[in-house]
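Hi Y.,

Following your request, here is the sequence exactly as I used it, all 308 residues.
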Amino acid sequence: MRVAVVDIGSNSTRLLVTDIAGDHIVDLERRSIVTRLGQGVDRSGALADEAIARVTAALDEYRAVIDELDAQRRIGVLTSATRDASNGAEFVARVREDYGIDARVLTGDEEAQFTFSGAMSGRPKPDRPTAVIDVGGGSTEVVIGTSTDDIAFHVSMQLGVVRQTERFINTDPPAFEELENLADDVRSILHRELPEDLREQVGHAIAVAGTATSAAAIALELDPYDPDRVEGHRLLAASLEEQLAFLAAMTEDQRRKVKGLHPDRAPTIIAGVIILRECIRVLDLREVEVSDHDLLRGAALCAVLGRF
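Below is the corresponding structure, written out as tokens. Let me know if you'd prefer a different format.
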């Protein structure tokens, strides 16, 4: 079955068109545009008109691709920003009506489960539990388990690159105190939300989505982005620390020129690296594996199985 999945997140709007036949998965098209739907939602409680306009411009582009590839199923997932917004339901209805996409807002639990399914697809069952980390724009999901049928724990936290940037970073480049306050906030949330006994069982972590793939692309100095080189890349905790110091010393305009970093991610990458670093620390791991297989693939697999 050919499935098109649109993920309308708090920071980016993404598209995956993939062919799925049993265990055989072939990705035909993958695109991502930073649209920052979550802009100001933490303060105003509503999706901003200019943010909606950025998303619909991306959807106009994606609809042409979906039509050209003649996808049989066309689904859409909306996450933290839309969940939190007073006008979220109205926006979902517009996406369904204007673009012919079977769109719905995922609960935090569904988002975690879809992400885990995508990240673990095609992998052998590990000996010890794996933690899948998805740092998003408005929320961060951590899922711990050994397979999609054996998920021991999952949580969706109000912790994301747009949300934490808007809350803590007010200077350019960011002040040391701002970075410390952001990290303290992340650390307290992680310690509160991730049970210590489960953290101690984790033997491996996989990080998905824009922060992790951007950090890998920066480490590899990729220009243009190469998903085959990013897939499976291992980010050392020490390397993330160096990357944070490197990025935090720059202005936003300077970060836009960093090799491997998409310019539109320059405003929020510092918060993203801090969140990912703190996740690795709280799990007491030395490294994290990066994967391009995430929520999009998980949603596509669930659609084929009739679970969407």
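The chain has a mean pLDDT of 93.

Thanks again,
Q.
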